[in-house]
Amino acid sequence: MGKFKVLVANSTIPDIAHNILKTECDVKVCEEGRESILQNIEGVDAMFWLSHYKLDKELLDKAGPQLKVIGSMSAGYDNVDVEELKKRGIKFGNTPGVLNDSVADMAVLLCLAASRRYIEGRQAIEQSLWKPELNAQWLLARDICGSTVGIVGLGGIGLAVIHRLKCFNVAKFVYTGHKEKPEGKAVGAEFVSLDELLKTSDFVISCVPLNKETEKMFDAKAFSKMKSSAIFVNVSRGATVNQPDLIAALKEKRIFAAGLDVMTPEPLPPDHELLKLPNCFVTPHLGSASTNTRNKMAELAANNILNALKGQPMLTPVV
Ligand code: DGY
Fold first, then answer.
1. Domains, the chain
2. Statement: the pTM of the whole predicted model exceeds 0.90
3. Which of 127, 192, 222, 311 is the most buried (most CB within 10 A)?
4. How far is the CA of 136 from the centre of ligand 1 (A)?
């Protein structure tokens, strides 16, 4: 019998996390649903968290005062009431870094699929619109080569995107954020204001975390500053975008196209307007969804929990 009680609040996490936790803990697993978590959380010392539900006061009250640590298997934690955790002295860790490569791969996929008009091309085949007569003006793309790429939020993911896109012979990388960063200089990216980035970029790639400042930052005003040939890509969180404004911009061709791995709501209903736009390429929040990355995230989250339970520093603490 292990010393600590841990609730794994998602039955789909990789085995590696169970194996790590089992070395020191009694592990109980429940389904991800809020009701199921509420039914199982009482009396646990730690929780392994992988959920889009809110981690809030109600869950923490139900857990009880012995709860010491929560390890989230995600980089983002906008659905977690971090202030409440701080107040209660509950430690909380996330899994940044290990998913940078996977998410950056997804950003490149979205840049390519949106700029090469993947949806329109596929639909043209399915609807017999691909004609035998060659049309030199048909489904022309916007090149990444020679373009200006703007990264909004130059963290690990943004940097990994730059490293990849360098191979595409991008003319210029710009980025924006709170301050100029030495890492930006190291990869040859220029620090600019958000306004400047929106006005000059051919590809605008959102890699910002979701918080009060970034919520709905991509709105009608932002889209109106972008070039009509611009491509907007989002691998951060759907709520950084005012989605009706994005849909209007795409419909009215005020921007060329969008590639979205994140949107609101998630899951996106199958009849959602975003899916009807030929210039919008959508994937179902798969940024970190590779076997290796999910294993690394699970391992890190489990080790964060064990460390905290044993009184050692977490590897990647938030609080
Ligand atoms: C994260 O970890 O925040 C990614 O969005 C994957 O869910």
1. 4-96+291-309 (3.40.50.720), 100-282 (3.40.50.720)
2. yes
3. 222
4. 41
ipTM, two decimals, is 0.92
From residue 174, give the alpha-carbon distance in Å to each of 47, 199, 209, 215.
Answer: 40, 11, 18, 21
Backbone angles phi, psi at 262, to 5 degrees: -135, 145
Distance of alpha carbon 73 from its chain centroid, rounded?
13
Task: Provide Rg for the chain, Cα atoms.
Answer: 22
41 CA from centroid of ligand 1 (Å): 23
For residue 23, count CB atoms less than 10 angstroms from its CB and return exposed for 0-12, middle for 13-18, buried for 19 or more. Answer: exposed
Calculate the alpha carbon distances from 25 to 19, 22, 212, 307, 310 in Å: 10, 5, 37, 12, 11
Cβ of 71 less than 6 Å from ligand 1:
no
Q: Is the CB of 76 under 6 A from ligand 1?
A: yes
Please work out whether the CB of residue 110 comes within 6 Å of at least one atom of ligand 1: no
List the one residue out of 231, 206, 253 whose CA is nearest residue 141: 231
Which of 112, 107, 227, 84 is CA-nearest to residue 163?
A: 107
For residue 38, the SS3 value is helix
Question: Residue 176 and residue 311: Cα distance in Å, rounded?
Answer: 38
Q: Atom 6 of ligand 1 has which residue's CA nearest to it?
A: 288
Q: Please, what is the Cα angle at 131 between 130 and 136, to 5 degrees?
A: 95
Q: What is the pLDDT along the chain (319 residues), one digit of tens a residue?
A: 568 999 999 999 999 999 999 999 999 999 999 999 999 999 999 999 999 899 999 999 999 999 999 999 999 999 999 999 999 999 999 999 999 999 999 999 999 999 999 999 999 999 999 999 999 999 999 999 999 999 999 999 999 999 999 999 999 999 999 999 999 999 999 999 999 999 999 999 999 999 999 999 999 999 999 999 999 999 999 999 999 999 999 999 999 999 999 999 999 999 999 999 999 999 999 999 999 999 999 999 999 999 999 999 999 999 9
User: 285 catalytic, yes or no?
Assistant: yes
